[in-house]
């Protein structure tokens, strides 16, 4: 079996980056700092070319805990598809890591807590229970329950004092967009799903 064209090797405190047979040595702190700033294997691989396994093992050799990063990102509510893009890996690999790290992804169970305001925004944007449920990454029955609770808790008018924490930013942007053109937004479900996924990845 031929050797990989792009890979990382370790010698003391130095990481050697091999690309098409040519090698360049850099101090390992450059690798660790880049990983801490970006929190993305995909971004790091632009500078430190290598396979997923090669890169993770190199990070771990110098004390960086990649599993701890994934745990943090799972807690922050990242979906498997978003993390797969962020780290440029197979979504199935992310799903296996989620399960191994004790973060079940059961159908009908929300991966993050949704406020009543967020539930109403999703429904106004999608225009249906099924569309809003897909937008939020939960099943329709769970969304119906959340919507019933939200309807009992909220006034018909929207509250301008919505939580502005980073986790709610994507909903705030959606609300601003719907206010400009009216609450029944004429976007396809795929467009809305892409909007929410893109905003979630940026948060």
Describe this structure in words.
This protein is mainly α and 203 residues long. The chain has helices at residues 28-38, 41-47, 52-61, 66-75, 80-87, 91-100, 116-126, 129-136, 140-153, 169-181, 189-202; strands at residues 6-11, 14-19, 22-27. It has a three-stranded antiparallel sheet with strand order 1-2-3. Helix 7 (116-126) crosses helix 8 (129-136), helix 7 packs across helix 10 (169-181) and helix 8 crosses helix 9. The chain is elongated and about 60 Å long.
Keywords:
203 residues; mainly alpha; 3 domains; three-stranded antiparallel beta sheet; 57% helix; disordered C terminus
List the helices and strands and how they pair.
Layout: E1 6-11, E2 14-19, E3 22-27, H1 28-38, H2 41-47, H3 52-61, H4 66-75, H5 80-87, H6 91-100, H7 116-126, H8 129-136, H9 140-153, H10 169-181, H11 189-202
Antiparallel strand pairs: 1-2, 2-3
The poorly predicted ranges are 106-111, 155-167, 180-187, 199-203
Major β-sheet profile = 3 strands, antiparallel
Number of strands: 3
Mean pLDDT, all residues:
76
SSE order, as H and E?
EEEHHHHHHHHHHH
Q: Which structural category fits the helices and strands? A: mainly alpha
Strand order of the largest sheet: 1-2-3
Distance between the termini: 42 Å
**Number of contiguous helices:** 11
% residues in beta strands: 5-15%
Helix content: 55-70%
């Amino acid at each position: 079996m031929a050797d990989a064209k792009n890979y990382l090797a370790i010698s003391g405190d130095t990481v050697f980056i091999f690309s098409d047979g040519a090698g360049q040595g850099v101090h390992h702190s450059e690798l660790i700092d880049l990983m801490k700033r970006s929190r993305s294997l995909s971004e790091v691989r632009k500078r430190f070319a290598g396979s997923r396994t090669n890169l993770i093992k190199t990070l771990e050799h110098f004390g960086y805990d990649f599993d701890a990063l994934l745990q943090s990102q799972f807690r922050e509510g990242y979906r498997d598809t978003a993390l797969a893009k962020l780290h440029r890996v197979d979504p199935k690999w992310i799903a296996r890591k989620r399960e191994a790290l004790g973060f079940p992804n059961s159908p009908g169970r929300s991966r993050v807590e949704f406020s009543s305001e967020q539930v109403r925004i999703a429904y106004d944007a999608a225009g249906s229970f099924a569309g809003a449920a897909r937008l939020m990454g939960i099943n329709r029955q769970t969304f119906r329950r959340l919507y019933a609770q939200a309807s009992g808790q909220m006034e018909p008018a929207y509250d301008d004092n919505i939580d502005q924490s980073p986790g709610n930013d994507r909903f705030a942007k959606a609300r601003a967009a719907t206010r400009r053109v009216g609450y029944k937004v004429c976007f396809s479900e795929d467009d809305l799903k892409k909007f929410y996924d893109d905003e979630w990845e940026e948060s």
